[in-house]
From TrEMBL:
Residues 93-120 form a coiled coil. It comes from the Eukaryota. GO terms for biological process: nucleoside diphosphate catabolic process. PANTHER family: ADENOSINE/GUANOSINE DIPHOSPHATASE, GUANOSINE-DIPHOSPHATASE. This is Uncharacterized protein. One of its GO terms (cellular component) is membrane. The active site is at residue 277. CDD domains: ASKHA_NBD_GDA1_CD39_NTPase (cd24003). The keyword Iron does not apply. Residues 1-51 are annotated as: Disordered.
């Protein structure tokens, strides 16, 4: 089974709908299994869009010693590559059937978990709730949050909210999270709108079933609980037309009240920009560490905060960095982050698309295959110093390299796939382990495209990170700056290398060198079950890439320490928490009668309450306006008095000197 396909095993969809979904996908991709296999492959170009084919079963590795087959003619090499392409689609169909077969057992586990949560969800009786769906490149996760009702009982609370001193903050539990695979971007394969909507509904249904199960005691209030869907790099990578089509389907499904009982408006489902993801990463980290809400209260801009922390996120398709710049001099990539009416933060934030872990692996493989003939790719094989000694891996890609050495989708050759896809066999004969480590580190560094920094180094005097992007100097540990928190794929690499939660870049480098010197069997012993077998051979590259990204990319020094963890204070780290913190503080406040007590969340939309509160609200606004007008008139009067005081001596002097002549223009004193 291939690496990415085997990741698709955690599927939690409605059985009948999901089986139908995979049946449609399989039918659209391959012919019946009993059809004779020909040397020329089924043309994927006629059956599935290029971007989907690129993202499915791209890599499948096997562990055995590399053998050099006898020399074959060019035509035979092309035929062999064509056969590999055909085998790819046959294997793809089999794995989809395997996913469907695994579905029954997974659904039993999922149902048992939902029954347990139904009996004991652990939600507070007086809180309100919201849903955030993180639609990532490899799957979607639903997070359920709760917070105190956004109600204001008196004028003091109203003043507090208007002045930015009152912030709502979300709470959650790890068991209030559900997930499924694959990523949302895979649905771009559907050309027919009805089929797309049916598949989308089947895909999202288990997430909404989960939410309804957890929140069942508050079913009457579902219409007041907002649901947000935010897609990340997997959708950003798609062509604009496909991205718009998939997101339009999401909105149609979520606008169906028979399917979605929660509060939804179209803008609540969209693709995040990379910088938004970076900012929400930062907000989530600092919120969990207790250094955000209190320092945000009030109006204006946050200046000289007591403590902040930086955020480093490494996803599958992209990577993000964000931090507060203490000198407030940010020449580019400045993002103003504000929670409700509170102070705003001037933050540096940047996201690098195609620099996520999965895309880095794909680009690395494409670099090795660049310029190779079909015979060199599939017959002789290509040496990959990042593989364990004695290992071999079959890959498939449509990433090409230009003459200048940059990745491109443009190609000039004719490939057996009928498209830009090609096959390649990568191997490591294990002749020189020390050389392998050095070469792997060098290849990983090349992926950062530091050659693009020439102009940035000139225009920004060396304040640059990678790929020609400006970055101010990293803050170092001090009274006002704590540390950088890294998560997602950083955490997976840290765990594989057995590094402590806080480790230096030097320790990362040393552990990477050791791991990359091992063969497959020794590497398996070293991993101690912390990595899936089908991904194990990729972890030398993953470790080397993380080192290069942190050290030669972002600029961390060898003695700098980074804290790596997916959990802080028992809560999952990630952008979803920061996004929900932002979103709930954009929701309107409900103003209640001053003489009444604060009502439960389900009553704040009651028509009678609204009618009685409107008078209080209007009276308050009128009082504020009257006060404002009084201040304006006072300031104008004061300005006039000062003006007269300033020019009266000049006027008197002018009058006395002119003695009946026409007055000259007044000249102010200097």
């Amino acid at each position: 089974m291939t690496g990415q396909a085997q990741q698709n095993k955690h599927v939690m969809e409605d059985e009948e709908s999901w089986d139908l979904h995979w049946t449609r996908r399989s039918a659209a991709i391959t012919s019946d299994e009993d059809k004779p296999e020909a040397m020329s492959p089924v043309s994927p170009a006629e059956e599935e869009p290029q971007h989907l084919r690129k993202r499915n079963l791209k890599h499948h590795g096997s562990h055995h010693h590399h053998r050099h087959p006898s020399m074959l003619a060019t035509d035979d090499a092309l035929a062999l590559e064509a056969q590999k392409e055909q085998d790819f689609w046959t294997q793809y169909k089999r794995e989809q059937r395997l996913n469907a077969a695994q579905h029954n057992a997974e659904m039993e586990q999922h149902d048992a978990r939902m029954n347990e949560l139904y009996a004991n969800p652990g939600i507070a009786p007086a809180t309100v709730h919201g849903l955030m769906i993180d639609a990532g490149s490899t799957g979607s996760r639903l997070h359920i949050y709760e917070w105190e009702p956004r109600t204001l009982a008196n004028r003091k609370e109203i003043t507090s909210a208007v002045s930015g001193d009152r912030i709502s903050f979300p709470g959650t539990e790890s068991r209030w999270t559900d997930r499924l695979r694959p990523g949302l971007d895979t649905f771009s394969s559907y050309a027919d709108q009805q089929e797309l909507d049916a598949a989308m509904e089947a895909y999202l249904k288990p997430l909404f079933d989960f939410a309804k199960s957890v929140l069942h005691a508050k079913q009457a209030d579902f219409g007041n609980y907002p649901v947000f869907l935010r897609a990340t790099a997997g959708m950003r990578i798609l062509p604009a037309d496909d991205r718009a089509r998939v997101m339009a389907s999401v909105r149609r499904v979520l606008n169906n009240v028979q399917f979605n009982p929660f509060l939804f408006q179209n803008e609540q489902a969209r693709t995040l920009s990379g910088e938004e993801e970076a900012i929400y990463d930062w907000a989530g980290v600092n919120f969990l560490l207790g250094d955000l809400v209190e320092q945000s209260t009030g109006a204006g801009t946050v200046v000289n905060p007591q403590k902040t922390h930086g955020a480093l996120d490494l996803g599958g398709g992209s990577t993000q960095i964000s931090f507060y710049e203490p000198h407030e001099d940010i020449m580019s990539n400045l993002f103003k982050f504000q929670i409700g009416q509170a102070k705003h933060w001037n933050l540096y934030a940047h996201s690098f698309l195609f620099f996520g872990m999965n895309e880095a692996i794909h680009r690395h493989q494409a670099t090795l295959a660049a310029g190779k003939t079909s015979k060199e790719r599939v017959v002789d094989g290509i040496y990959d110093p990042c593989l364990p000694k004695g290992a071999k891996s079959d890959v498939r890609s449509d990433i090409h390299l230009s003459a200048e050495g940059f990745e491109t989708w443009t190609y000039n050759e004719t490939y057996p796939s009928g498209t830009g896809f090609y096959q390649a066999t990568l191997y490591n004969d294990g002749k020189d382990a020390e050389s392998d480590v050095k070469q792997c580190l060098a290849l990983a560094k090349d992926l950062l495209h530091l050659e693009n920094n020439k102009w940035c180094n000139f225009s920004h005097k060396g304040d640059c990170s990678l790929a020609g992007v400006y970055q101010p100097q990293l803050p170092t540990k001090s009274e006002s700056f704590g540390e950088f928190i890294a998560f997602s794929n950083y955490h997976h690499v840290w765990k594989f290398l057995h590094l402590k939660e806080r480790a230096t870049i030097q320790q990362l480098y040393d552990a990477t060198q050791h791991a990359c010197s091992l063969n497959h069997d020794d590497l398996k012993v070293f991993a101690r079950g912390k990595v899936e077998d089908d991904q194990l051979d990729s972890y030398c590259f993953r470790s080397a890439y993380v080192f290069q990204l942190l050290h030669n990319g972002y600029g961390f020094q060898m003695n700098d320490t980074i804290r790596v963890s997916n959990v802080i204070n028992g809560k999952k780290v990630g952008w979803a928490l920061g996004a929900m913190l932002y979103e709930i503080n954009t929701l309107p406040w409900t103003i209640e009668n001053e003489t009444s007590q604060m009502l439960p969340s389900h009553k704040h939309h009651h028509p009678a309450s609204k009618a009685s509160l409107q008078g209080v609200f209007i009276g308050f606004i009128a009082a504020v306006m009257a006060l404002s007008l009084t201040v304006v008139f006072f300031l104008r009067w004061r300005r006039q008095v000062l003006y007269q005081q300033q020019y009266e001596p000049v006027k008197e002097a002018s009058n006395s000197s002119s003695r009946g002549k026409e007055s000259s223009p007044l000249i102010p004193r200097v």
